[in-house]
Amino acid sequence: MLIMLGMDSSMGGLEAVATGVIDEFGDHLKKYKWHRELFMLVTVAGSFLAALPTVTQGGFFVFSLLDEFAAGTALLLVVFFEAIAIGWFYGLEAFVQDAKLMLGFSPGIYWRICWKFISPIFIMAIVIASGVTYSSLEVTLAQRTVVYPQWGNILGWMFVVGAFLWVPGYATYAVFIKFRHISSWKQRLAVVISPEHEHESIISGLEPSRYQLHHWLSLGYKATAETHLVPTSKDAEVKEQMMATVTDEDAV
After folding, report:
1. Judging by DSSP bridges, how do beta strands 138-141 and 144-147 pair with one another?
2. Cα(132)–Cα(26) distance, rounded to whole angstroms?
3. Higher-pLDDT residue of 172, 7
4. Enclosing H/E stretch for 41
5. Phi, psi torsion values for 180, nearest 5 degrees
6. How far is Cα 151 from Cα 137, in angstroms, rounded to an integer?
7. pLDDT digits over 25-73, tens only?
8. Are 105 and 223 in contact (CB under 8 A)?
9. Residue 141, φ and ψ in degrees, nearest 5
10. Helix ranges restricted to H, 52-179
11. CB burial class (10 A; 0-12, 13-18, 19+) of residue 129?
12. 226: pLDDT strictly greater than 70
């Protein structure tokens, strides 16, 4: 049972990493045959090599360090950023609309309040409490208590910082490098905090929904298609092709 539980957890984590990387760099990876399988092989092999120190003679100390820092505060900070991204930047109107398309009904007001307010507040409270009550890590092994040295605790906090540093790091990259071709700083910031399907309308000069007070205060009661589904030039091309196909069929 423990083996199956471990495999199940590993598959969930691997799929999360693989989906994100392949979605972002799919155009480059698809040039190679079996790109997904090769990427998964490299990821699994890298994870295996990274986990080898935990099965050495001092592996329990390495495991305790990872369990205390990498699987605790670091994970909570990542979840906090996810909650903020969904509940505030992406917006509950768009998220409720997506949930309705998948489930067939809109989530209740309880879940909306949890996503937007309760979850981020509780998570940040736990992170702050863990920082305030922090003490040097120690483990008990064979009836002997071992206190980690200062460099061990510093290494643990480096795990914490390294886990969530990618979020502000990528935001900085997007503002100053990825979207540097947008001359207007107002439009550039709006593009960074908006979904991709709204980028074209923002660049064309339409007022971004993220600059409207309604977006930040909304609890998803009115998940309108106007703020969620913004037609793009690609959509127009597909529509023209469909119309042309229908016209050809009618002519035949």
Report:
1. antiparallel
2. 42
3. 172
4. helix 35-51
5. -70, -15
6. 11
7. 877 777 777 778 888 888 889 989 988 999 998 898 998 888 888 878 8
8. no
9. -135, 120
10. 59-65, 74-84, 92-103, 109-113, 119-132, 150-164, 166-173
11. exposed
12. no
Q: Kindly report whether the global pTM for this prediction surpasses the value 0.70.
A: yes
- How far is Cα 48 from Cα 52, in angstroms, rounded to an integer? 6
Q: Spell out the residues 6+ positions from residue 121 whose beta carbon is closer than 8 angstroms to its own.
A: none
DSSP 108: P
Rounded-to-5 percentages of helix, strand, coil across the chain: 75, 5, 20
* Element of type H or E holding 144: strand 144-147
Task: Count helices and strands (H / E) in the chain.
Answer: 14, 2
Measure Cα distances from 238 to 202, 225, 233, 252 in Å. Answer: 21, 19, 9, 21
Nearest alpha carbon to residue 90 among 185, 218, 234: 218
DSSP state of 104: S
List, as own/partner pairs, every contact residues 195-204 make where C-beta atoms lie below 8 angstroms and the sequence separation is at least 24, other chains included: 195/90, 195/94, 197/229, 197/230, 197/232, 198/230, 200/230, 200/232, 200/233, 201/230, 201/232
Half-sphere exposure of 229 (CA within 13 A, CB side): 8
**Mutual angle of helices 35-51 and 2-29, in 10-degree steps:** 130
Q: Find how far residue 61's CA is from the centre of its chain.
A: 30
State the burial class of residue 120 (Cβ atoms within 10 Å of its Cβ: 0-12, 13-18, 19+). Answer: buried
